Amino acid sequence: MKKTIGTNVSSGAEKVERVEETKETATGKASPKSTKSTKNTKDTKSTRQKSAKRETASSKKRTARAKKQEEAAADRRVEAAKLRMQKKQEKAEKAAAQKSAKRERKAELKAKKSEKRQAVAQRKRARQEAEARRKQERLEKRKEKRAERKEKRIEKHAERIARKEMLRHESKAEKRQRLAREKKEKRAAHARRTEAKERAREEAREKRERAHSRRAEAKKRRREARSERRRHAPGFGGWLAAVISLGTACLVLATVVTAGALRMNDMQVASENGYRSTLFEMVSVSEELDDNLGKLRISAGADEQRQLLTDILVGTSLMESTLEKIPVDAQTGIEISAFVNRTGAYARMLLSRISAGGTLTAKEKETVTELYAINGKLCGELNELISTMTAKDFTEFLTGKGAMQERFGEIAGGTKKQPEETDSPFLGEGNVGKNRLEEKAEISSSEAEERARQYFASYHIRDVRYTGETVAEDFSCYNFLLTDEGGLEIYAQIAKSGELAFFDTYEECNTKNFDLASCDAIAREYLKGIGIEGVEAVWLSDGGMVANLTYTTVQEGVRIYPEILLVRVCEEKGRVVGMDARGYLLNHTERSFSASISEEEARRLLSEGLEPYAVHLAVIPVNGEERLAYELACNYGEEEFIVYLDAHTGAEVRIFRVKIGARGSYLR
């Protein structure tokens, strides 16, 4: 710090002198000495004042400079403080950000661990549920097998009882005839087995001979090739010259050939891996189809059925896609594709039905069961094929040869489905709507036996045996085995309300003595005799010397197809050898009808190219309900179809295709 004591003392002396001068001036007195002193004092005073002024100015400058320095220092301290505060704040923000990022990472890791635990738990639950479903399916399969075995045991037991009952009442002549017949059948069966074994041995022998001939021929060709090479082989000198002349070319080509071979080998391996992957994908899709079809058989909920049918549609699409990538022959691909497309089309139809609020009928579930059985066989064969396949087999398969190609052909053959044939439209639909037999009183088995004798009075029946009852959901009856004078057996069912519901016999018909018109008259007369009148023949077909005639009742000119009857007439003897009236008995009642569209409108609604030659109003069964429809028999070029259009909306309900087969006309 700067000292200012001297300056302050000088300033005090000046003050004393200024006071004295003031006094002298006031008295007006001054001595010479004082004048001189005053003069000197003035000079000194002036000098001192100047010195003081200079010092004051210098002091002010120093003070100002010190102030400026202090202010600059203060500014620097403020800036330093600000900088420290800024760094401290940045450090705190960085620490907070790091802490926040650490918390976020911890939270993310925790969430990932939680998701992983949930995924593991979900997979575990899925495995447990899948295992539970598989266990349930295994239990159901075992139950089904037990039920089938039980049913077979019951059937065998019933057959044994029926046979014992038959043997108990047969005469000596009948016993001799039966034993002779059984002996003849055994001999025929033994002859067939012997013939089959002999044929198999002959085929095996021919196969061995062909293989031996092929090996001998191959040996012969190899010997001839070796002889040819020896005959045309050059001498040693020529051989040596050839080796020397070709050595350079071989060395040059070796690298190129090796590189090309390596590239080709890599391409072949990649191709084989692709085909192998596609084959495994096909097996996987087939297994998924097997699971979904198996579940659909037992499913009763619309939502689950909708999901299963959607999965089946996706599976059939994937199966078709994988099949296109596998190098099978055209026929095999067509056969497997036909099954896949048939399954997809049926699933699409059922899905549209369920989406519209409908349900699956028992017949549709039977069809699903058939598809499940075919796909199960396909899946099992493919799995066995994959498990037994060797690298050599697979290489041959890619070239279109070998055992795998033959096996694929066998697998494709197992997916074939014979066309569904019927002798009449809507045959076997069963009860539609209300069961009319429930309104009638039941009779006893003894009364039913008397009714059976009455129904077959013209058949010269010698013996009637009661063989038990058939109890179904919508139909119950008494079963009888009738024997005529010639030993011919007739199996008949009498409804518990007393009507003849069904009968059949295996009578040989070898000669055509009656045409269809005569058989129609015979059948109508027979139906009239058992109390059935007011029917119309809607389908006539003959094959194997037996006429198949389909009748239905007609009310107000409308054909009632739920009340359908099937009658079989032997064209040699001119008598009825079979009848099925169960649909008629279950559904026979009076009805009223009212169509919303006319016959002309129905004709116009037909697809282009169809030419109707007969039109009738008809009541047809659709999904367990009756629906009024127009029945239009149409020609389409050289083909024939029967089309049913809804009589209220004009929508297509059913279409049958008329085919001509080995046993006559039938519908598809």
General description of the model:
This protein is an alpha+beta fold and 668 residues long. The protein folds into four domains: 73-167; 250-414; 424-591, no CATH class; 593-668, Nuclear Transport Factor 2, Chain: A (Roll). It is built from 13 helices and 13 strands. It has helices at 5-27, 32-169, 172-231, 236-298, 302-325, 330-355, 362-388, 391-398, 403-414, 445-455, 516-529, 582-587, 599-604, and strands spanning 461-471, 476-484, 489-495, 500-505, 535-543, 546-555, 558-570, 575-580, 611-622, 625-636, 639-646, 652-661, 664-667. Strands 1, 2, 3, 4, 5, 6, 7, 8, 9, 10, 11, 12 and 13 form a 13-stranded mixed sheet that branches. A hairpin with a 4-residue loop joins strand 7 (558-570) and strand 8. The model is unreliable at 1-11, 23-34, 256-270 and 418-422 (pLDDT under 50).
| End-to-end distance | 126 Å
The overall pLDDT average reads 76
> How many structural domains in the coordinates?
4
Number of helix segments?
13
Helix content: 55-70%
Biggest sheet descriptor: 13 strands, mixed
Tell me the β content.
Answer: 15-25%
Gyration radius over CA: 56 Å
- The ordered string of helix (H) and strand (E) elements is HHHHHHHHHHEEEEHEEEEHHEEEEE
Which class of secondary structure composition applies to the elements?
alpha+beta
Number of strands: 13
What overall form do the CA principal axes indicate?
elongated
Which spans of ≥5 residues are poorly predicted at pLDDT below 50? 1-11, 23-34, 256-270, 418-422
